[in-house]
Structures are given as C-alpha cells and as structure tokens.
Amino acid sequence: MQTLTLEQETNPWEAQAARFDFAAKKLNLDQGIWKVLRQPTREIIIHIPVGMDDGSIEVFTGYRVQHSAARGPGKGGIRYSPDVSLDEVRALASWMTWKCAVVNIPFGGAKGGVICDPKKMSQGELERLTRRYTAELIEFLGPEKDVPAPDMGTDEQTMAWIMDTYSMHMRQTVNAVVTGKPVNLGGSRGRKEATGRGVSVVCDEALKQLGMSPQGTKVIVQGFGNVGSNTAKHLAEKGYTIIGIAEYDGGLFNAKGIDIAALTAHRKEAGTITGFRGAEAANSSELITQPCDILIPAAMENVITSRNADKLRCRILCEGANGPTTPIADEILGDKRVFIIPDILANAGGVTTSYFEWVQDRMGYFWTEPEVNQRLDHIMSTSFHDVIAYSKTHNVNNRIAAYMLAIDRVAYTTKQRGMYA
Ligand SMILES: NC(=O)C1=CN([C@@H]2O[C@H](COP(=O)(O)OP(=O)(O)OC[C@H]3O[C@@H](n4cnc5c(N)ncnc54)[C@H](O)[C@@H]3O)[C@@H](O)[C@H]2O)C=CC1
Ligand SMILES: O=C(O)CCC(=O)C(=O)O
C-alpha cells in the first residue's frame, strides 16, 4: 500500500483514496472508470445565516457531497460537528457509495455536514440551521436524487425538520426525501437501532467464522451514542459480555460485564455515562487497548492509527464508526492477525434499514418491526459472507475485499450506463 505522511494518515479523504486505489489496482480497473469513481460527482458548499437566541446572527458553513449516482439516488447522513471539513464529507460520501454497493442496495453515495457544535446550540437554533441548510440544497435533494439521514450530532427530529422544509417547498408532503424520521412521519420501525443491530449480526457471523461463541466473548465499545449504545444493547441481549465503554468524557470498566439497560437509564437521567455505579471509572483512551475479544470503535474517525495500533489487544475489530482505522494502522493490525470487519460492511445496517424506509414511504405501506429486522439480518449476514468469500477468492484482507466487491459493482453499472458519454 502507498506510504502516507502522518498528516495524510489522518485525512479521511486520503485514507479512502488509498484503499480505493489499492482495490482498483487489484481489480485491474479500467483507467477511465478509475478516474470517474475516484472523485465525487458534485460538492456543494453553503454558508448558512442563522438568527441565534441572543439576537445575534451567526453564519455556519455546510456541505453536501454527492459521490456517485450510478446505482441509484445519493444516500447518506448529515453530520453536525465542530470537526466537519470538506475532505471528511468527501470521504464519508465515497464510503456511502461503497457501503450501499457492499450490501447491494440501489443507492449511490452522498453525505452532508455542518461545522457547528450541536451540544452548545438550543433546539430553536438547530431548527433554524437545519431548515436553512435544507432550503439552500432544495434542488439537489429529493427521493429520486439524494436522500439524507442522521449521522453524528443529528437525529429523528433533525430529519423531521428536513422533511417539513422540503415538503413546504414542494407544496406537498414528501416523506421519502429523508430516512431516519420519527415513525409517525413515515419513519421505519427498527431504523433507530438498525446500525447497532447490524453490527451485532456481523459480530455473530465473525464468531462463527472463528469458532467462537457469544457466551464468554468480551467486548469493548467506544462511543455510547446511537451506534455504540444500540450495538452494546444487542450484543448484551445475545449473551456477549460488554466489559468496557469509552465516551469522550470518561470510560467505564467491569470485567464481569456492564448492565447496558441500567447504563442507558443512568445516561438518560444524568446526561453522561460517568458516575454509573455498575462499573469502575476508566480512562477512555486506555480502554481501547485493554485485552478483549472484540473492540468496537463506534464514535469517530482516526481513533486507531500508527500511534496505538500495535497496542490493541483484540481478536476482532468491528468498525461501527466510519473510518476509525487509518491505512497504516491496517497494516499493523494485519501483521497482528486481527480480524477486521470493515466499516463499509459493519455499519451498513443503518443505511439498509434506511433503504427499507424509503421503499415503505414510496409504497405507503409499512412493515412490522420483526419484518424489518428479519430483512436486515438477512442482508447483513449475506453481505458478510460475500465479503469473506471475496477475500478468500482474491487473497486479500476483509477491508480490501469489501472495497473490491463494491468498486466492481459500481464500475459495472457506471460502464453499462455509459456515464461518461
Ligand atoms: N447513526 C447511524 O445510523 C450511523 C452512524 N455511523 C457512524 O457511527 C459513528 C457514530 O455515529 P452516531 O452513533 O450516529 O453518532 P452519535 O452522535 O449518536 O454518537 C457518537 C458518540 O460518540 C461519543 N464520542 C465523541 N467523541 C468521542 C471520543 N473521543 N471518545 C469516545 N466517545 C466519543 C459522543 O459523545 C457520542 O455519544 C460515526 O462515525 C458515524 O458516521 C455509521 C453508520 C450509520
Ligand atoms: O441511513 C443512511 O442513509 C445513511 C447512514 C450513514 O450516514 C452511514 O451509514 O454512514
């Protein structure tokens, strides 16, 4: 793999491009298609004026990047965070293209982001920001064009505001313009928990692959937001032992297992996981290097780099977050024979249930939660085995196998459509 400087190592776009180039070379990808898929189709930058609660006006910078529409409308979340950058949103948009192709759903890839700190903004400020962001993007969004969803810092309420703003402009209710909405507005049952549920399904499959079982399998999860908390919940329900949870303001450790339902109740009341009596307080950055069977980064990018990869003591690394591991760290973990379940496979449960939501909205008929979950479990386990089979046939690691499988599918459609004429 190409050698990267430290600065490039933690640039998500460079990390994505390094994996893309490596996989494309292995595929012997046509040079022209390579050039087409290496860049996003469209990058939109907007500056969003928002009236703040104190009477001042603030201007926020936002992005929507559409990487590919070869296999269907753009699909991907919107992130509200102070760390958002164009390179990050570019990478996230490309990962959406590959992710949707890995699980074989008819979407391309897109992603959005706004540089802001949602933790420091009121609901009113967030609503005004979201509505103006949506209005600025109105001609680029739509059920057949580009369908946003929640990501870090955004939730069901954000999606409800986007749906309403889009619908006001269209003069009719268009619920299929976003997914991850509240169920009473056309959201899918199961979407809120879907990413974490999907992570638990690929963990099950990895254990079978390695001759292990959930009972006695020790797990550490980084991040207790949507993905982390639901992953922990589903794994605990299946009999895994969650021994550690790392959050930005502190971690928790209990060798006998943390009661996830009790921790969720504590977090709801206290607004933080810290102070929970059912575990010892632990240093978050040290937690991820503690011995465990499965480590699940489910918070953010670049948490596993050349600086700490050699210290990891897990058998399986299952990426709930997007881009938690840098390419250099991949090589180190490869030498340590860590079994990696790459992000574009591991966390695809969210977008898969988003696909179900879009389908249900468009037909106006809604499935029960067991129906949604059964379909999700089937796609996640089938996709896991597709990636493993690809890795064996092509003698590459799981991450490169996932990229190759995805690039192959997107390249095929791009070529068949003649998306360069
Ligand atoms: N929400 C979804 O359906 C999907 C999310 N993802 C990815 O999963 C990751 C997490 O997303 P969500 O759970 O939706 O976001 P979220 O905002 O609900 O949760 C993120 C959590 O990580 C914590 N966190 C932030 N910095 C941290 C640090 N340095 N150490 C430990 N914890 C930290 C936050 O406090 C928060 O609890 C992101 O990479 C996102 O792109 C991927 C697929 C789908
Ligand atoms: O549900 C979706 O459409 C996208 C979720 C997302 O942003 C992701 O998978 O990274």
Explain how this protein is built.
The record marks 151 as: Important for catalysis. Belongs to the Glu/Leu/Phe/Val dehydrogenases family. This protein has 421 residues and is of the alpha/beta class. The protein has two domains: 40-187 and 356-362 and 396-421, Leucine Dehydrogenase, chain A, domain 1 (Rossmann fold, 3-Layer(aba) Sandwich), CATH 3.40.50.10860; 194-346, Rossmann fold, CATH 3.40.50. The protein is built from 15 helices and twelve strands. The protein has helices at 6-9, 12-27, 31-38, 86-102, 123-136, 156-170, 191-209, 226-237, 260-270, 284-287, 327-335, 343-346, 349-363, 369-394, 398-417, and strands at 42-51, 57-68, 74-81, 109-115, 146-150, 218-222, 241-247, 250-253, 280-282, 292-297, 314-318, 339-341. A seven-stranded mixed β-sheet has the order 9-8-7-6-10-11-12. Helix 2 packs parallel to helix 4 (86-102) and helix 4 crosses helix 15. The longest helix is centred in the last third of the chain and has 26 residues, at 369-394. The protein starts with 5 loop residues before the first helix and ends with a helix. The mean pLDDT is 97. It binds 1,4-dihydronicotinamide adenine dinucleotide and 2-oxoglutaric acid. 1,4-dihydronicotinamide adenine dinucleotide is lined by residues 150-153, 195, 222-228, 246-248, 284, 298-300, 320-322, 347, 350.
Q: From N to C, what is the helix and strand string?
A: HHHEEEHEHEHHEHEEHEHEEHEHHHH
Instruction: Output mean pLDDT.
Output: 97
The small-molecule ligands in this entry are: 1,4-dihydronicotinamide adenine dinucleotide, 2-oxoglutaric acid
Integer count of domains: 2
The CATH homologous superfamily name of the largest domain equals: Leucine Dehydrogenase, chain A, domain 1
Q: What is the share of helical residues?
A: 40-55%
Q: What would you say the CATH architecture of the largest domain is?
A: 3-Layer(aba) Sandwich
**Largest β sheet strand count, sense and barrel closure:** 7 strands, mixed
Using the alpha-carbon principal axes, give the shape: globular
- Uncertain runs are none
CA distance, first residue to last residue: 33 Å
Radius of gyration: 20 Å
The structural class is alpha/beta
CATH topology of the largest domain: Rossmann fold
User: How many strands appear in the DSSP assignment?
Assistant: 12
**Strand arrangement in the largest pleated sheet:** 9-8-7-6-10-11-12
Number of helices: 15
The amount of beta strand, in percent, is: 15-25%
What is the CATH domain class of the largest domain? Answer: Alpha Beta
